[in-house]
Amino acid sequence: MNDIRRSILWVVFGLSMVLIWDKWQIHNGQKPTFFPASAVTAPAPVAGPTPAAADASLPAVVGSAAVSGETPAGAPAAAAVRHEISTDVLKLVFSSEGGSVIEAQLLKHAEATGSSEDQEDKPFTLLTQSATSTYVAQSGLIGGSFPTHKTPMTLVPGATTLADGQNELQVRFESAEVGGVKLVKTYTLTRGRYDMTVQHEVVNNSGQPVSPQLYLQLVRDGNKLSSETPFYSTFTGPAIYTEAQKYQKVEFADIEKNKTDFEKTATDGYVAMVQHYFATAWVLGDGVLRNNFARKIDNNLFAVGAITALPVLAPGQTQSVQTRLFVGPQAEKVLETITPGLELVKDYGWLTILAKPLYWLLEKIHGYVQNWGWAIVLLVVLIKAAFYWLNASAYKSMAKMKAINPRIMEMRERLKGNPQQMQQEMMKMYREEKVNPLGGCFPILIQIPVFIALYWVLLSSVEMRNAPWLGWITDLSSPDPYFILPVVMAVTTMIQTALNPLPPDPLQAKLMWMMPLVFSVMFFFFPSGLVLYWITNNVLTIAQQSYINNRMGVPLKFTMPFDLFKGKPAAK
Fold first, then answer.
1. Sequence-ordered strand ranges (E) for 375-499
2. Do residues 10 and 2 make contact, with C-beta atoms less than 8 angstroms apart?
3. Cα four-point dihedral sign 394, 396, 400, 405
4. Please, which pLDDT band fits residue 448 given cuts at 50, 70 and 90?
């Protein structure tokens, strides 16, 4: 491999790292480091008819006592009572304070991951309210003296468990009257579903017209997830989706600094709270004007939500607003059935256009083999087969370069005092041997986005969580407990590097060996599914490159690094 090719490769590699780092920053809700995007101007409020008294008051009420969590004046004080409600997939705890959902356990997902057995039978807890952690779903009325999420509510007697053969379960809360206004919340839970219909009925029993506004919010602390590592990161925090601006993540740090940037006014979309593998979301119907907000409400406590104005209610009148609340895993096919764009909480970043078809194919393969580990292996095999001829041209070029590399190094040593003649002689040799120094670069570069997209598919898919492969690998989302896969990964990476021709420059040759080793060390902390994917790719690459080298008559010699680090020329 000559200096020109090596220099171009380093430039391409450096630029790729810069671009990948910027996209990584954006994926995790942070500002890009090298190519900051220009600020997006918030769109003007939606034109057209709006409910009376809605537009003028909406921006102001986001900071009101009701939404911030303070008890409004005139609200009766009472000790909160917990009410447990269960379906086949959810165990929810509602509070009599506002009829809010203060705890949610996902019965089909275990709390523990990996080889841990101490919490094997305990379901995963998503929503919670304790002294150390807060993550709840709330709703209420503002715009006057109305019931809020702090107002005591009474559970209407009825079933609290979804019985066998029963498809739906209704849970109804009724508030005390505040200012002559009563709020009734009816949660309708369906068998096998993580989303529920929440109907808000506002009853005006006062003697005068009222103009309430309904708010929906998700409140959680800003604590980091225990599953986060220094080597790979996933986004945790609020997200807002509108048809105009699409999926917009909001970093907790930006809320702290009051530097949030998302569409404030819309007539569609949802507000969500996202973490690795799981999410919650409030969804209002399309065509309903709402103001979205994301704000800090206390020390290390944040809220994301939406506010919509109801029409003026005359004395004795009732008005209903139907919403949906999702609390569950980021299962892509399920999310797509709830509301447009909700599947984007499973965030593939900037390679979504490639990642979604790869996930579809991975799921289809799993449908046949019924094992996510073997599905990963077969998917990589299919991708390598699809790129076989493209890879073949690259490996042929590399084989030719390796075959003539000793001659190039001899010529470099002979003509090191005459760089111009050395360059002319190298170009002449390339023409005679019909070698393109860049022939092995571009075919490989074309495939990089596909494998990065597959990386995000495996990292983001909740199906990998507690999914076994074989033997000691009982969870593809956790690191290998015995580090067997990372060691195999390191060995295959070394073999793959040894099959390639070394650059003539000793420093570049050392870097060529050091970078794969450093890269392999990172995989000791990566999920097993990701390591399995890279091992499969490495093994197939080694097999194809060895086969092509053999067909072209290039001896299967490994270029080993030991002499390089002793200051001696490496064997060719």
1. none
2. no
3. positive
4. confident
